[in-house]
């Protein structure tokens, strides 16, 4: 669990701002490099730093001592909290809420995640508390949801709250319909006007309250203020039906927008319900059913046929098949046995599994994926950032135009004041940028959620947009294009030695090796029933990147490269055999016994079954150039590249050379993706335009380092993700064009006097609902 503290640097910092910055930078560098410090940033006040740390990794006293040595004082009254927010149905609402809460005394920092409907806040617990924050949120027209650690509302409570929230809308709608009916039936005008006034009072009062609270808290006009001004103006000029219609349509539109956005948010959170709340734990000689939250790493849980796995862990007993689709997107269940890794939320097949827990439920792979997806949804895509800037100029400009339209025609041209004011009120309604602002985030939310459902984690809108524009894609070989587990394909004696004796001697020499090729040789000997472990082995020397030598049953055995085994002097016959194997994509390992060449063992890391088809799909998705970057020998790499259809190969590369290769591709193609395992390839992944990690479900490093993480090993998901990216970009452009077109049409109609207030509200609400519905189509991909 991450905790928060504030550093008071008043004793450390001098008065001069430049010197202050130097002190801050020095302390920032010291603490940022300390294990256990999760984050560090400057607070709102000069001379304040907020730090986040993990008390399991670094004690509070240690941080205090580090701060004391630098002349700083550590205070512990500061709180970092993530609070769910309800009722937030437009991105402009998020900006209003962020400004309003941020102005509270004692609040150091606040950030709103509109897509995830969450507010991250850091505050001084001695100056402001959660109740005061909740009151400010309520004043602005929103609600604080259930904070982690507090009781969830009951269904009855939620139902009563829903009725209470929408009662003003229902009453206003009823009063408006009643007034319209009375007008049609020829009732006295006063009766209809009273109904319309009642509708405005009942349905409009909540809007007016939010408008006043927003202006007081943020000193800016939001959509509630614009609507309130429009309704008051309509009443002043006697347009009671228009006023009531504006209020009801606006309230109805907000309710529908809130419903559709909540649906998009629930689509990713529903993954969390895949994990059971209780599990059977073996404790001593008995089995107990306990809450999943109480299970700790090291305990053993029992999973019966058909049950969902409650936690991440490793199988210690039993065999079964497990449906991993919720995590990896794989459509076929995977066989699991002792030693295999399993994930929370996946479904056990016909067998009983005993699983040793490796992570707490809150830190399971699916829980971390959901948190990362919600964080990714909060990141603004480039298009969204542009639209936010545009909207910040658009609304004030239209408000100024509305004021000019209300004053100038009557003052200069003798036009009717009532007509001019009415046109200005229509313009105020059009000034609302909601449809435009929401056009991008709703599409990003839907696309990232759709990808997560298929086992692809996209860590932000910027990476989603970039994935569809890649012109070149670089691949690591081992574990990416290939299975990642080499196997012996041939044993070739050279000195009349039987194959079995050659393989047994090599396997014995490799007994203490940790190299994948050594493990493959040992597996091959065991598969043939050869007892390599029965031979005495001593005088073992490992030669990094070359091989191993040992004394096996009294004889000197060397296994490895030509430089180690033959000291670089390769006879022509052996050289021809090595060339043949390498051309076929196999890795030859030489074996010498007592200084004489004894044979060659050929190994191959088989290409993934779907790799060739995936590469063709990637080309069809628009990638013009593919290249393999590998540390393996060139001949081996080129053999595999030919089989799979990779355009180019760069072989025998060190990690830093892979980075330089990616940089060269960037200079040539502009946008380049790098696909690797997220561990050895981390520098190259970070340098590429988009870093894509394979098999990230069980790898913390891959989840953290990649821009896009494939939870399984299906290369075909890359082309799917590129197509999803292009679909998202098309949808964003459609939404922006639709919102701007509707605004432009009604702007012209309003200036020309051809648009009414209710038409403007209907168009604004309709545009918002259309862009939301269009963006959410991506959830069905």
Question: What are the SSEs and their pairings?
Answer:
Blueprint: E1 3-8, H1 17-32, E2 37-42, E3 48-53, H2 60-69, E4 73-75, E5 78-86, H3 91-102, E6 107-113, E7 118-124, H4 130-139, E8 143-144, H5 155-184, H6 189-218, H7 223-236, H8 240-269, E9 278-283, E10 286-291, E11 300-303, E12 313-317, E13 320-323, H9 325-328, E14 334-336, E15 341-342, E16 347-348, E17 353-357, H10 365-378, H11 382-413, H12 417-430, H13 434-438, H14 441-453, E18 456-458, H15 461-467, E19 472-476, H16 477-481, E20 487-493, H17 499-509, H18 516-527, E21 537-543, E22 547-552, E23 555-560, H19 562-566, H20 572-583, E24 587-593, E25 596-604, H21 611-620, E26 625-629, H22 634-644, E27 648-650, H23 655-669, E28 672-676, H24 682-687, E29 690-693, H25 700-705, E30 708-710, H26 716-752, H27 757-776
Helix pairs in contact: 5-6, 5-8, 6-7, 6-8, 7-8, 7-12, 8-14, 8-27, 10-14, 11-12, 12-26, 12-27, 14-26, 14-27, 15-26, 17-18, 20-22, 21-26, 26-27
């Amino acid at each position: 669990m991450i905790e928060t503290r504030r550093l008071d640097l008043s004793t450390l910092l001098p008065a001069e701002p430049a010197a202050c910055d130097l002190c801050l930078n020095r302390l920032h560098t010291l603490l940022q490099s300390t294990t256990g410090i999760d984050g560090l940033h400057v607070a709102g006040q000069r001379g304040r730093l907020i730090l986040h740390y993990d008390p399991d990794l670094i004690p509070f006293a240690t941080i205090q001592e580090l701060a004391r040595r630098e002349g700083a004082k550590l205070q512990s009254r500061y709180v970092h909290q993530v609070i769910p927010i309800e009722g937030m149905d437009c991105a402009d609402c998020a900006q209003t809420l962020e400004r309003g809460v941020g102005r509270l005394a004692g609040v150091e920092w606040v950030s709103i995640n509109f897509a995830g409907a969450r507010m991250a806040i850091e505050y001084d617990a001695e100056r402001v508390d959660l109740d005061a924050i909740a009151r400010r949120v309520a004043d602005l027209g929103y609600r604080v949801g259930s904070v982690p650690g507090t009781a969830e509302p009951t269904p009855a409570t939620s139902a009563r709250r829903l009725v209470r929230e929408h009662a003003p809308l229902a009453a206003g709608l009823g009063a408006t319909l009643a007034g319209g009916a009375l007008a049609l039936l020829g009732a006295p005008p006063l009766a209809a006007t009273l109904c319309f006034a009642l509708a405005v009072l009942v349905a409009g009062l909540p809007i007016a309250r939010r408008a006043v609270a927003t202006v007081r808290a943020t000193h800016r006009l939001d959509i509630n203020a614009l609507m309130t001004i429009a309704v008051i103006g309509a009443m002043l000029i006697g347009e009671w039906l228009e006023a009531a219609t504006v209020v009801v349509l606006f309230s109805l539109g907000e309710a529908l927008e809130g419903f559709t956005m909540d649906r998009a948010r629930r689509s990713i959170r529903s993954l969390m319900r895949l994990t059971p709340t209780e599990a059977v734990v073996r404790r001593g000689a008995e089995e107990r059913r306990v809450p999943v939250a109480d299970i700790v790493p090291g305990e053993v849980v029992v999973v019966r046929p058909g049950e969902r796995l409650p936690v991440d862990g490793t199988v210690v007993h039993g065999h079964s098949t497990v449906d991993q689709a919720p995590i990896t997107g794989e459509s076929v269940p995977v066989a699991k046995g002792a030693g295999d890794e399993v994930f929370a939320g996946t479904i056990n097949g016909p067998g009983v599994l005993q699983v040793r827990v490796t992570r707490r439920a809150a830190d399971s792979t699916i829980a971390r994926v959901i948190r990362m997806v919600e964080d990714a949804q909060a990141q603004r895509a480039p298009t969204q950032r542009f639209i936010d800037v545009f909207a910040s100029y658009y609304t004030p400009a239209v408000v100024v135009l509305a004021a000019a339209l209300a004053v100038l025609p009557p003052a200069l041209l003798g036009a009717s004041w009532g007509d001019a004011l009415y046109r200005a009120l229509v313009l105020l309604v059009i000034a609302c940028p909601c449809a435009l602002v929401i056009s991008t985030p709703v599409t990003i939310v839907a696309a990232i959620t759709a990808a997560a459902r298929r086992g692809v984690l996209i860590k932000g809108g910027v990476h989603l947009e970039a994935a569809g524009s890649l012109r070149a894609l670089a691949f690591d070989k081992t574990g990416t294009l290939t299975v990642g587990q080499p196997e012996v394909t041939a044993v070739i004696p050279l000195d009349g030695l039987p194959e079995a004796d050659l393989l047994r001697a090599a396997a014995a020499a490799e007994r203490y090796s940790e190299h994948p090729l050594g493990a493959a040789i040992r597996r091959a000997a065991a598969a043939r029933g050869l007892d390599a472990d029965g031979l005495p082995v001593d005088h073992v020397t490992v030669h990094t990147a070359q091989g191993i030598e040992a004394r096996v049953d009294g004889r000197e055995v060397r296994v490895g490269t030509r430089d180690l085994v033959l000291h670089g002097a390769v006879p022509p016959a052996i050289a021809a055999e090595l060339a043949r194997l390498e051309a076929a994509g196999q890795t030859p390992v030489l074996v010498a016994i007592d200084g004489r060449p004894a044979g060659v063992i050929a190994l191959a890391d088989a290409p993934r079954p779907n790799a060739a088809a995936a590469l063709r799909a990637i080309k069809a998705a628009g990638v013009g150039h593919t290249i393999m970057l590998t540390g393996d020998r060139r001949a081996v790499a080129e053999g595999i590249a030919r089989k799979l259809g990779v355009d180019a190969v760069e072989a025998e590369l060190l990690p830093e050379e892979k980075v330089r290769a990616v940089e060269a591709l960037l200079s040539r193609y502009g946008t380049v993706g790098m696909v690797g395992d997220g561990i050895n390839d981390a520098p190259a992944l970070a340098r590429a335009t988009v870093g894509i990690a394979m098999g990230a479900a069980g790898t913390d490093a891959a989840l953290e380092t990649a821009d896009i993480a494939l939870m399984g090993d299906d290369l075909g998901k890359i082309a799917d993700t590129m197509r999803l990216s292009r679909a998202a970009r098309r949808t964003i452009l459609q939404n922006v064009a639709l919102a701007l077109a509707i605004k432009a049409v009604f702007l012209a109609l309003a200036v020309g006097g051809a648009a009414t207030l209710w038409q403007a509200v209907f168009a604004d609400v309709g545009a918002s609902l259309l862009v939301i519905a269009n963006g959410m189509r991506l959830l069905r991909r």
